[in-house]
Amino acid sequence: MDGAMLEALRVLLRWLHLLAATAWVGGSLFYLVALRPALRAGTAPPAVGSAVGREFGHLVRLCIPVLLVTGALLTFDRLADGRGNVLYAGLLALKIAAALVMFVIAWEFGRPGVRRRPSDARAAVLLVLGVLILLLAPLLRAVYGS
Ligand code: HEM
After folding, report:
1. What is the rounded CA–CA span in Å between residue 115 and residue 23?
2. What is the distance in A from the centroid of ligand 1 to the CA of 77?
3. How far apart are CA 127 and CA 138, in angstroms?
4. pLDDT higher than 80, residue 55
5. Domain of residue 37, residue span
6. Cβ 20 under 6 angstroms from ligand 1
7. Cα–Cα distance measured from residue 89 to residue 136, given in angstroms and rounded to the nearest whole number
8. By three-state DSSP, how is residue 37 classified?
9. Ligand 1, atom 27: closest residue by C-alpha
10. Is the CB of 133 inside a 6 Å radius of any atom of ligand 1?
11. Is the C or the N end of the chain the one with fewer CB within 10 Å?
């Protein structure tokens, strides 16, 4: 594959990875700071919470394989040229571990027959991990050097 094609593929992979990450973390933030308070205050009916939870669950179950596949390819791309140092590998391992915990927690809620809305504690853990990963991503880029 020539250089221009490879660069175009990198941009596509990063775009898909970023899109899935933004949709998931943004949706979690919306749930915790907008929907949940409205449900608690009774200004949004419980049926809205269930319907939004169900639709968001579908979105998250789409985001997970996209993040896994694009993340694996980005990891291969970054590690293949040997420019990543020990700090890079350590931060990447932390990012992947946090992502795997998110996947396990989130996958449960999308399963048919499982309660659609996560407990507040689990939703908060998902958001905290998501925000941590969003911090690790630019850190990784800075450590890698581009
Ligand atoms: C096992 C799953 C995952 C793997 C293997 C993975 C791997 C990677 C790798 C290798 C990079 C490139 C880092 C660099 O610039 O050197 C990256 C970037 C990024 N990752 Fe992940 N990731 C995973 C899951 C996630 C999740 C769950 C999120 C967010 C919720 C996320 C958000 C991001 C973001 C925002 C970037 C920066 C994209 C850019 O600016 O180009 N990743 N990921």
Report:
1. 21
2. 12
3. 18
4. yes
5. 3-144
6. no
7. 12
8. helix
9. 99
10. yes
11. C
